[in-house]
Amino acid sequence: MYDNDAKFQTDYEYNHSLDAFMQQSYKMPYHPKSLSESLAILNEYKDTLPNDQYASIESTIRGQAIGHQYCDRFDIELMVKQAKGEVTYEKGIKTIKERIKKDLKSLREQQKE
Predict the structure, then answer these.
(1) Angle between helices 35-43 and 51-66 (to 10 degrees)
(2) Which of 28-37, 64-73, 86-95 has the lowest mean pLDDT?
(3) By CB distance 3.0 to 4.6 Å, which of 11, 32, 56, 86 could disulfide with 70?
């Protein structure tokens, strides 16, 4: 499939090396590469949540992983805070919008460099 790229044996290896290159070249924030990484982050909160809320968040993370969209620490912390009642839905949406604006501003500044 990759005739000129003999050092990559599989599509998996090629895609992961490409991801690493893209993150390095654009200085993007780290994003989990697998479901197990996202679940490891959630596991840190296992003792702070009731079983039903933990299972609900785990189900959400697994559902996102079906489309190869793995939740990062920010996403999981926000879900945990919402489950505990520390953050309302509206405040959560506002927090997400602020994060997106911040990330876009950071990427634009890096592109100018």
Answers:
(1) 160
(2) 28-37
(3) 32
**Distance (Å, rounded) from C-alpha 97 to C-alpha 99?**
5
Domain ranges of the chain: 31-112
Tokens encoding 35: 């479901």
Tell whether the torsion through CA atoms of 7, 12, 14 and 19 is positive or negative.
Answer: negative
CA angle 104, 102, 85 (to 5 degrees): 130
Tokens representing residue 64 in the block = 């996102």
Assess contact for 38 and 61: CB atoms under 8 A.
yes
- Tell me the pLDDT tens digit for each residue of 18-49: 455 444 444 445 677 888 889 999 999 999 99
Q: What is the pTM of this model?
A: 0.66
Secondary structure string (H, E, C) spanning the chain:
CCCCCCCCCCHHHHHHHHHHHHHHHHCCCCCCCCHHHHHHHHHCCHHHCCHHHHHHHHHHHHHHHHCCCCCCHHHHHHHHHHHHCCCCHHHHHHHHHHHHHHHHHHHHHHHHC
